[in-house]
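Today's session is about reading a structure prediction critically. Students often jump straight to the picture, but the first step is always the sequence itself: look for stretches that repeat, for charged clusters, for runs of hydrophobic residues. Only then move on to the predicted structure, which in these notes is written as discrete structure tokens rather than atom positions. Here is the chain we will use throughout the hour.
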Amino acid sequence: MRMLLPLPTLAVALALPFSGVAAQTAPPPPLSAIAHQLEQGPSGARYGLLVATLDGAPVLAIAPDERFIPASNTKMFTTATAYADLAALDRAAQGTGVRIERRDVILEGRGDARLSSAEDCRVDCLQTLADAIAVRTRRVRDVIGDDSWYPDERWGPGMSWNNIQSRYGTGMSALTLDDNERTASVVPGAIGAPPTVRAAGYYRIDNRVVTVPGKAQAIVADRAPNGRLVRLTGTIGVDAAPATLHFSVDDPAHHAAWRLRALLRARGVTVTGDIRTRHRPLGPGDDPAIRNGAPAARPPAAPLLAQLPALPLAEDMRIINKQSQNLHADLMLRRVARAQGSGSIADGQAALDRLMAQAGVAKASYSFADGSGMSSYNRISPRAAVTLLTWIARQPWGAAWRDTLPVAGQDGTLRNRFKGTILEGKLFAKTGSLNAARALSGYVVTKSGRTLVFSALANDMPDGTDAQASAAVDRALVALAEAL
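Below is the predicted structure for this chain, in token form.
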């Protein structure tokens, strides 16, 4: 392990329990044991670790002020910014709606991340809007997807191009449907023959996969950005279970309009025209620095024929943090951005800056280009994360926010980590995973029952060793909990 700073003198203050009982003093944890666990990780990896009490007193630190790619630890900052003004965001939230403009159907998105067209949909269903159109008319011309509620910024700066075609890098849009992804099932055929591919349209499939002996599968899906052709190559074993593939959507407004057209036709509505989209190009007025703090101009919203109710945003916070849902996190940042601005990424960054200043997080200790952590431009220090987490714990909504975090060995992205250790059910933290970057930050209950705040970040691992770095961090945190 490469230590970026000399081993610090460790503070002796221990954590405050959530009840607020005064801290007691005790011997510091054995830093050498923690460092030893990290040293077992991949050679060349860079680590940052800060552990503190709930009142902010440091317990131990390794490179606490170095900046790291945080991956999905970014979502902590996004959801905290939203939670701080959740009541106002809920009041302003609006659901997706439809209207008829001359003979065209306009499907208008207003930032809802959970609109669904699944066959078993019960809440927030596109089918409800299709029913409203079918009751009003039996013949329409074009079906238009309108996502101009936010400016047209499909991806945050720093998104890797190769992630765009995966479900983790799908396009952002004020008009979002079915998480902006499509799926296909690949069923093995006879040995030497192509498998059967079952897909529900939108993309054309060029199937070049070959069925081979065995149970293994190695299927590669390739699609050019903004392309509608998916090429499948590789192999699938004749005895393998069907493989489910997930494809991202680059133009979510177009995809949603395509799906609405199918639902209208299924209800006996004749559609004579095309599928079209309405986007709002990003302009100077979407930058709060150019506006000099002035409110963003907003054209009046057209009346809707039917509109779905807005779902409570707290439910989406659990999806974002428990499942590490990238699209929902980026859309949450855009919701925050529209509260005082235009809904642009720049307005979201300004909102994050305001909250970080309130929480006492130094501006030099972080930078964010998106709300999800998919951007390689994002940076945080362990101190930035711990400062935010200690501030959150003092807020009236702090306990509710902490409940959105994965629980070690039990749920979310931590369901398979720390099982059988002292930390199973005792660590509540946000994970993070990107190329050569792993992160874990949150709250940990030690052997003595004390609650500590921590941030553990690892970057620059050699290819193929990311899992080893995560395992080293996990062992270090177990050693910490055992010592305290």
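Discussion point for the tutorial: The mean pLDDT is 92.
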